[in-house]
Amino acid sequence: MKKMILVILYILLTITGLVLMKLGGNTGSILIENMSFSFTMNFISLIGFISYILSFLLFTNIVVKFDLSYIMPITSGLIQVLTLLSGFFIFNEIISTKGIIGASLVICGIIVMNIKVKKGNDKIQSDDVKQN
C-alpha cells in the first residue's frame, strides 16, 4: 500500500509540475557572467519546477521498489493520459481522434499489464480479485 501511495504522489507531482510550468509560461533565464550565476523564474513556474524536481526524486525511490519493466510503462502511460486530460480541461486544448485512440490504447495496455496469470493453470486473474 505504501508503494502505491508513492506512485500516486509521484504522478500527482509530475502532472502538477507540468501544469504549473505551462500556466507560469516562463521557462526561466540563466545568466552566467563575471564568475556569478543567476537564475530567474516567475513564482508559478518555480512551484511547478519544484514539483517536477520532487517527482523526479520520488521516482528514483520508486524505481528501487518496483520492477522497472513494470512501473515505467504504467507511470509513463498514466502521466501521458493525465497530461492529455489536463491540457483539455485546464488549457482548453483540443484532443484529436488520434489522441483519444492513443489514450485508450494506453489505458488498455495498463489494464493488460495488471492481469496476472495464475500459476499452475491458464486462468487469468486481476490483482484486485482475491483468491479463495
Reconstruct the topology from this structure:
Elements: H1 2-24, E1 29-33, E2 36-40, H2 43-65, H3 68-91, H4 97-113, E3 115-117, E4 124-126
Write a structural description.
By secondary structure, the protein is an alpha+beta fold. Helix content is 66%, strand content 12%. It contains four helices and four strands. It has helices at 2-24, 43-65, 68-91, 97-113; strands at residues 29-33, 36-40, 115-117, 124-126. A two-stranded antiparallel ribbon has the order 1-2. It has a two-stranded antiparallel sheet with strand order 3-4. A hairpin with a 6-residue loop joins strand 3 (115-117) and strand 4 (124-126). The radius of gyration is 19 Å and the shape is flat. Mean pLDDT is 87; it is low at 128-132.
Feature tags:
disordered C terminus; 132 residues; single chain; two-stranded antiparallel ribbon; 66% helix; alpha+beta; flat
Short summary:
The chain is built from 4 helices and 4 strands; from the N terminus they run αββαααββ. With 132 residues, it is an alpha+beta fold. It has a two-stranded antiparallel ribbon. Strands 3-4 form a two-stranded antiparallel sheet.
Class by alpha and beta content = alpha+beta
What gap, in angstroms, lies between the N and C termini? 21 Å
Helix content: 55-70%
Along the chain, the helix and strand elements come as HEEHHHEE
What is the overall silhouette? flat
**What characterizes the major β-sheet?**
2 strands, antiparallel
User: Number of helix segments?
Assistant: 4
Q: Could you give the count of β-strands?
A: 4
Please indicate the percent range of residues in DSSP E strands (runs of 2 or more). Answer: 5-15%
Strand order in space, largest sheet: 1-2
Low-pLDDT runs:
128-132
Rg over CA atoms: 19 Å
Report the mean per-residue pLDDT as an integer. 87
Oligomer: single chain
